[in-house]
Amino acid sequence: MITSWKSFLIGAVFMLVAVTAGYMVYTGTGNSFTGPEQEITDTPVPADRVTITPLPSLRIIHGIEVPFEGKVELRQAIAGRAARDVSIVNFQATGENADKSEIRIVWENGEIGTIHPGAQNTRFSADKRAVEIIVIGYSMHERKIFKDSRRQGTLTWEIRYEPVE
């Protein structure tokens, strides 16, 4: 009986080592040895050598698969008095007659610009300033005799601009 407990103990220790090694290989902790930490020294930089130019603040207006039914006008809030350097990154619309959806931009001089679905990376000149941006969704089943019926649709858009105070 003395020999049987020795073989049992050797087998149990072997299984414990095998399971631990397998777990370390599976989780990747066996290869993540970190050496001693190295001391990092900061060298002072003279103030007249570095010039930091702040970037203009860029604002983003976006909606991702916004559901609607029929016809909807979504007015977009503009930070500041107006928006300049307006860029339409993406505009997509789904639904029946979705090609009648649009982004309407009212410029400072009274002009109205429209962007239709499928537009990507459309930039307007930096000197034009938008005072109002409206995303219009249209999804209607149009009939000649009877009243048009509303259908489900979605809108996806991303507009970037720089606010003007």
Features:
single chain, alpha+beta, 1 helix, 16% helix
Gist of the model:
By secondary structure, the chain is of the alpha+beta class.
Describe the 3D structure.
- The protein is α+β, with helices and mostly antiparallel strands and 165 residues long.
- 16% of the residues lie in helices and 44% in strands.
- It contains one helix and eight strands.
- The protein has one helix at 2-27; strands spanning 59-76, 82-94, 102-107, 112-115, 120-123, 129-141, 149-150, 152-164.
- Strands 1, 2, 3, 4, 5, 6, 7 and 8 form an eight-stranded antiparallel β-sheet that branches.
- A hairpin with a 7-residue loop joins strand 6 and strand 7.
- The protein is flat and about 100 Å long.
Topology:
Elements: H1 2-27, E1 59-76, E2 82-94, E3 102-107, E4 112-115, E5 120-123, E6 129-141, E7 149-150, E8 152-164
Antiparallel strand pairs: 1-6, 1-8, 2-5, 2-6, 2-8, 3-4, 3-6, 6-7
